[in-house]
Amino acid sequence: MAQYNLVVCGGTFDHFHKGHRHFLLYIFSIAKEVLIGVTTDEYVGIKKADNNIEQFNVRRASLMNFLQQEGLISRAKITAIDSVFYPQDWEILPIEAIVVTKESVGGADVINKDRKKKSLKPLNVVVSDMEIAGDGIAISSSRIRKGEINREGRPFVKKQWFSGTLILPEHLRGVFQQPFGTLLPEVKKEEFLSFDPSRIVTVGDVATKTLHDLGITHKFSVVDFIVERKKTFDTLSELGFAGDEKVFQVVNPAARINSALFTSLKAMFDNLDQHRQLVCKVEGEEDLAVVPVLLLAPLGFSVFYGQPPKKGIVSIDVTEEKKEEVYRLAERFITETS
User: Taking a C-beta distance cutoff of 8 angstroms, is the pair 296, 238 a contact?
Assistant: First the structure.
């Protein structure tokens, strides 16, 4: 039997995931009817500097589809909210409780303080457990946008990949002879006007130098001074770097992705808020570095790499689908544990 007749909850419901499903099913298990506030695009834009949050209509549709599938839509009322407060016309409703996660308890406290000022009875605050991802950390939309996990909470990088070595098997070598994305045979600056340089990763010396030659100071590069198996460069300045970049040194053999490369690339993605360019200088070869880069990169990033012997560079948009594709490919590598 339901504990409450009417409760309220709110959220962004971005990249609708397993944690959202858990949260909503819990709410409907304790309440007969639920008022659900979904944050507007305007509020999200002010609240978070993140352009990978889905549009309001997409977020609301995902929420409604789930409620319909579960047979709960008739017990829900969904509305847009543009602040931490729910709409004023809800204040006259006999709401008994507000359901939150431990991350949003503060918002419930603000609402109750506001109700007290208006001589309204405070709402009971019910805290729902958060669904935990495969790495032991709570599932959240921000983690999905950062590219750490998928919507079911599965990490894109297995724990053992940070301690072992992935070896490219012979039967997969042909896969890497084909572009992972769109081949740009002629690289012109106009093609990059729509890209945010702070969200660009180059893998390989050719792609890195090409963008610098076009005057594009991108955020993140992986280089090894080798082009088509031949030592071609000796210094970062030859690739167009100014000299003030933050450099991560790593040793990685050819046809392998070792734990040091995974660890260094993760550290680089964890330092994206730095104003300097970030460079992973590989001693050995970065021929497979595009794999860990795509697994670790946040959604909305763009990756460029050279594709010998073809002329030009390959452009890849980092999407959930692309990360899943590369994850399935990485699973087919031989894993050598240390």
Answer: no
> Strands, E, within 70-188: which ranges?
76-81, 97-101, 124-128, 165-167, 182-184
Looking only at Cα atoms, what is the longest distance across the chain? 76
3-state SS class at 322: helix
Structure token digits, residue 241:
């770097």
Q: Is the whole-model pTM more than 0.90?
A: yes
49's CB contacts (< 8 A; 6+ apart) are none
Is 6:76 a contact under the CB 8 Å cutoff? no
pLDDT confidence bin for 228, thresholds 50/70/90: confident
Structural contact between residues 167 and 255, judged by C-beta atoms closer than 8 angstroms: yes
pLDDT at 249 (0 to 100): 96
**What was the pLDDT predicted at 142?**
95
φ/ψ of 58, rounded to 5, equals -70, -45
Closest CA to 27 of 5, 58, 57, 12: 5
Q: What domains lie within the chain, and their CATH numbers?
A: 4-145 (3.40.50.620), 159-336 (no CATH)
Residue 51: predicted pLDDT: 67
CB 301 within 8 A of CB 278: no
pLDDT 10s digits, 107-157: 999 999 999 999 999 999 999 999 999 999 999 999 999 999 999 999 999
The SS3 call for residue 113 is helix
Contacts of 115 (CB under 8 A, 6+ apart): 91, 121, 122, 123
